[in-house]
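Record type: monomer structure entry
Structure origin: computed from sequence
Chain ID: A
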Amino acid sequence: MTVTDADVLDTRLKLARRVVAHIKNGTSDLADAPMVNLASVYTDQARHERELEALFRRTPQLVCLSSELKEPGAFRTFDETGVPVLVTRRADGQVQAFLNVCPHRGARLVREPEGKANRFTCWFHGWTYANDGRQIAAPEAERFCGGMEGREHLIELASAERHGMVFVMPTPGLPLDLDAHLGDFEPVLEGLRLNDVEWVKSDVLPVASNWKYALDTYGEGYHFAALHKQTLAPYFRNDITVYDRYGRHHRVSFAEKGWNELVDKPESEWGVRAEPGGIHYLFPNVILFAGSVSPGKSYLTIFRHYPGEAVGQTKTHKAIYAFGGVRSDEHRAEVVAAFDATAHVVRTEDYVTAAEGWRNLTFLPADATVVYGRQEIALQYQHRAIAEAAGLPLIDQPIAAEAAE
């Protein structure tokens, strides 16, 4: 299916209608009740290690966009799950992934983070492999006297490419079923038209916090008025959320303050454009943000959250892309400015709070809890999905609505 401008505009209009209806009625998409969660979900090291294995090594991972492996021979290394991964585009145009490990004695085969090459030579002993994983040279191979059997290929990892995204299963031998992983979220991702974006800038944003605490920030606008007084609050309301759940994934949208004026206007005067929009959560750790901290502009920003080995370590890999490609030097500067503005908000507000809040949780009693309000609906389902996938229980006791009033 080819997504057209009309399809994108239709999606945007449907979301705009819901936002405008909430503004008119003083309503929002809400959970049925608040939810409590053990604070130790964010601080327990054993739980953290279980999540590392189940969610980051046995769940499909978004490694990059297809546009970042544009040509045959293009490659990228990927180490953020703790597993050394090499992803390449073969001569036939197909994406293939391997452990970035030389089968000789386990040395790292490819040391560059990205590039273009038809072959890879291990810097330890010079064993060489084609970018489709076949061994093509090994110095003095005859002296191994048959000991090279079974080492003629790199160890392959399951990989797949869909809607402009490249996925890898980091654990050897595990299948990658994208139909099952994406489910009914797939048409939403297709509507983002990720095949038609151009990378502009990227960076890594570290935070001394559990990965889930950092991830929570992207799922609710309730904190805008308090935390983002000068940055987001002037432009976005904190009391209206449009929420759509797609299995373990979701999309949330927040109301721009300028949309208050749309309530009494016909749709033809709303100014809705055929550009993707909204915050999309791709389970377990990816946020795809189609929009900007400046209303009325749309760029694709991807935040990929990766936990460290310790429960209080997280690195967010952030990258911004131009929809339709970069049109001019002025457009590139605009996209870079959008990246810098968003990174400033995350670094100086969201992640300062995340580090402080997570550290405070470590001092609480073992049975202490946190609470997600009805307006934090995305967080409620997000934590349930993470716990279910990791095979770990939650308290998950909704607070009766009458008791919360």
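Annotation 1: Residues 5-54+185-404 form a domain with the Naphthalene 1,2-dioxygenase Alpha Subunit; Chain A, domain 1 fold (CATH 3.90.380.10).
Annotation 2: The two ends are 47 Å apart (CA to CA).
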